[in-house]
Design brief:
The protein is α+β, with helices and mostly antiparallel strands. Helices cover 27% and strands 29% of the residues. The protein has helices at residues 7-10, 13-27, 29-32, 40-46, 101-104, 109-143, 168-175, 192-200, 306-309, and strands spanning 36-38, 52-58, 81-87, 89-96, 149-151, 185-190, 205-208, 214-219, 222-226, 232-234, 240-248, 252-256, 264-269, 276-289, 292-294, 315-317, 326-331. Strands 5, 6, 7, 8, 9, 10, 11 and 17 form an 8-stranded mixed β-sheet that branches. Strands 1, 4, 12, 13 and 14 form a 5-stranded mixed β-sheet that branches. Strands 2-3 form a two-stranded antiparallel sheet. Strand 7 and strand 8 (214-219) form a beta hairpin.
Length: 333
């Protein structure tokens, strides 16, 4: 009988799977910043069948106020409702013990494996969120006259090294896309090239994390999330176009429900290399930018591909502009 530690000796799937689900959400930087928030309604709907499901919402109350009358009854107005359509996603990833050899050698191999797996899924879902937002703004450019986008990448009049790069003035312009609720913007996600511009211009402040260390970057009071998964589009005249996203709190709803799915299992394959331990993980979830509806006309796959998520034809805005939770700033750095 072998004496070495094996994945099957460490991982108890029914314990490991929910632990990984919770930890990966806690490690997700958009969740840490209060942008992506767990939604119980989404989680419950994911427990059922189908690829899409409806999220009803109340529309804003509109119109002018009335003047009281001694002779006429006050008009009673209805509260209108509408719905967003959210898309179920299913993803999976497997590893062999050779890939986790360093983890298996750790003092606490269960914790070592768990941290690596949850870290993988946290980053994977950050990427899927960004793909979805790219699709939302592609639709905004096509169908809503870019009313949630400030694009300074093609501005002229000054050198490209200044006019087309991120600045406080243009960030304020993007924030003001939200109109009189602009003060609800709490965070911003930028590419590392844009982050470098902010650092070079001495525009970054740092606040303390939960351990009291000054490690959380902020810009104009907004918490910064730096990710190279943000869209980088080749420009025709002024180089690359970098997307930056500004968020309200709770701009994105997240739900996870792994019913009718085996979220974690282990397997030993005796046919290769004298035997290989394998760990399989799967997750069923929804990442939904609030105010937008899944609208892919040819949605026949088990789950959307990355390209499906960022296609302009996959999304449609259903909220009024100022009630949405995210705006886009496009710059050359």
């Amino acid at each position: 009988m072998a004496n070495e530690t094996r994945i099957a000796d460490i991982v108890t799937p029914e314990i490991f799977a929910p632990y990984i689900a919770e930890r990966s959400l806690n490690q997700n930087r958009f969740a840490q910043a209060g942008i992506m928030v767990a939604n119980g309604q989404l989680a419950a709907l994911l427990g059922g069948g189908g690829k899409t499901f409806n999220l009803p919402y109340w529309k804003d109350l509109t119109g002018d106020s009335d003047i009281p009358s001694e002779t006429f009854d006050t008009t009673v107005n209805p509260i209108a409702t509408d719905k967003m359509i959210a898309r179920k996603q299913i993803r999976e990833k497997a590893w062999g013990s050779n890939d986790l050899a360093a983890a298996l050698a750790g003092a606490d191999p269960y914790e070592a494996i768990a941290s690596r797996v949850s870290g993988f899924w946290a980053k994977a879902k950050e990427s899927l969120l960004i793909y979805s937002l790219r699709g939302v703004f592609a639709d905004n450019a096509q169908g809503d006259s870019s009313d949630l986008i400030v694009d300074i990448s093609t501005e002229t009049g000054l050198s490209a090294t200044s006019a087309n790069k991120i600045s406080a003035k243009k960030t304020i312009e993007a924030v003001m896309k939200q109109g009189d609720v602009f003060d609800e913007i709490i965070a911003m996600s930028v590419h590392s090239v844009v982050y470098q511009t902010l650092v070079e211009n001495d525009l970054i402040d740092y606040v303390a994390d939960s351990q009291g260390r000054l490690t959380i970057p902020t810009y104009m009071g907004l918490r910064l999330i730096v990710s190279d998964n943000l869209p980088v589009i080749a420009g025709s005249t002024n180089g690359y176009k970098y997307h930056s996203y500004l968020f309200k709190a709770g701009a994105v709803a997240y739900g996870e429900n792994n019913s009718f799915l085996t979220p974690a299992e282990v397997y030993r394959n005796p046919k290769r290399g004298g035997g290989v331990d394998e760990l399989y993980t799967r997750t069923k979830f929804a990442i939904h930018p609030l105010g937008f509806s899944w609208n892919m006309s040819a949605d026949t796959g088990i789950t959307p591909t990355d390209a499906n998520l960022y296609a302009d034809t996959s999304w449609d805005r259903v909220y009024e502009k100022k009630n949405t939770g995210v705006v886009c700033l496009i710059s050359n750095g």
